[in-house]
Amino acid sequence: MLALSRLSKHYRTTEVETAALNDVSLSVAQGEFVAVMGPSGCGKSTLLNILGLLDRPSAGSYRLMGEEIAASSERQLTHLRRDHIGFVFQSFNLIDELTVEENVEVSLLYRKDGGLRRKRVAEALERVGVAHRARHRPQQLSGGQQQRVAIARALVSGPQLILADEPTGNLDTANGEAVMDLLKDACATGTTIVMVTHSPIHAAAAGRIVKMLDGQIVSETQL
Question: What is the H or E stretch that residue 84 is in?
Answer without folding.
Answer: helix 74-84
